[in-house]
Design a protein that fits this description.
Length: 77
Protein backbone atom coordinates (compact mmCIF):
# COMPACT_ATOMS: atom_id res chain seq x y z
CA UNK A 1 0.00 0.00 0.00
CA UNK A 2 1.15 3.51 -0.83
CA UNK A 3 -0.20 6.66 0.85
CA UNK A 4 -0.18 10.16 -0.66
CA UNK A 5 -1.90 13.50 -0.02
CA UNK A 6 -4.10 14.88 -2.78
CA UNK A 7 -6.20 17.98 -3.37
CA UNK A 8 -9.61 17.84 -5.07
CA UNK A 9 -10.62 21.49 -4.82
CA UNK A 10 -13.18 21.67 -7.66
CA UNK A 11 -15.96 19.60 -9.20
CA UNK A 12 -13.99 19.22 -12.44
CA UNK A 13 -10.94 17.93 -10.55
CA UNK A 14 -13.10 15.35 -8.73
CA UNK A 15 -14.59 14.13 -12.03
CA UNK A 16 -11.22 13.83 -13.75
CA UNK A 17 -9.68 12.15 -10.67
CA UNK A 18 -12.42 9.48 -10.58
CA UNK A 19 -12.07 8.91 -14.35
CA UNK A 20 -8.28 8.58 -14.02
CA UNK A 21 -8.26 6.04 -11.18
CA UNK A 22 -11.08 3.94 -12.64
CA UNK A 23 -8.58 2.82 -15.30
CA UNK A 24 -6.85 0.67 -12.69
CA UNK A 25 -8.05 -2.64 -11.28
CA UNK A 26 -7.06 -2.01 -7.67
CA UNK A 27 -8.57 -0.34 -4.63
CA UNK A 28 -8.20 3.32 -3.69
CA UNK A 29 -9.42 4.71 -0.35
CA UNK A 30 -9.78 8.35 0.62
CA UNK A 31 -9.29 9.10 4.32
CA UNK A 32 -10.57 12.32 5.87
CA UNK A 33 -10.63 12.35 9.66
CA UNK A 34 -12.46 9.21 10.78
CA UNK A 35 -14.13 8.67 7.38
CA UNK A 36 -12.81 6.21 4.82
CA UNK A 37 -14.54 6.08 1.44
CA UNK A 38 -13.97 4.36 -1.89
CA UNK A 39 -12.07 6.85 -4.05
CA UNK A 40 -13.80 5.48 -7.17
CA UNK A 41 -17.16 6.69 -5.80
CA UNK A 42 -17.88 10.23 -6.97
CA UNK A 43 -20.79 10.50 -4.52
CA UNK A 44 -18.56 9.35 -1.66
CA UNK A 45 -15.95 11.96 -2.50
CA UNK A 46 -18.52 14.75 -2.40
CA UNK A 47 -19.46 13.66 1.14
CA UNK A 48 -15.96 14.68 2.34
CA UNK A 49 -14.56 18.10 3.24
CA UNK A 50 -12.72 18.98 0.03
CA UNK A 51 -11.42 22.33 1.28
CA UNK A 52 -8.20 20.73 2.55
CA UNK A 53 -5.89 17.94 1.31
CA UNK A 54 -7.12 14.35 1.67
CA UNK A 55 -5.11 11.17 2.25
CA UNK A 56 -5.27 8.64 -0.59
CA UNK A 57 -4.38 5.00 0.15
CA UNK A 58 -3.44 3.04 -2.97
CA UNK A 59 -3.80 -0.73 -2.60
CA UNK A 60 -1.74 -1.86 -5.60
CA UNK A 61 1.06 -4.37 -6.02
CA UNK A 62 1.80 -3.53 -9.64
CA UNK A 63 1.44 -0.46 -11.88
CA UNK A 64 2.37 1.78 -8.92
CA UNK A 65 4.67 3.95 -11.09
CA UNK A 66 1.94 4.36 -13.71
CA UNK A 67 -0.63 5.22 -11.01
CA UNK A 68 1.70 7.82 -9.49
CA UNK A 69 2.23 9.39 -12.92
CA UNK A 70 -1.55 9.67 -13.46
CA UNK A 71 -2.00 11.14 -9.96
CA UNK A 72 0.69 13.81 -10.43
CA UNK A 73 -1.76 16.72 -11.07
CA UNK A 74 -3.61 15.97 -7.80
CA UNK A 75 -0.65 15.48 -5.46
CA UNK A 76 0.07 17.95 -2.67
CA UNK A 77 3.74 18.55 -1.89
Amino acid sequence: MKTVKISLSSIDRVKSFVNDINRFDCDFDLVSGRYIIDAKSIMGIFSLDLSKPITLNIHADKNVDEIMEILQPYLVN
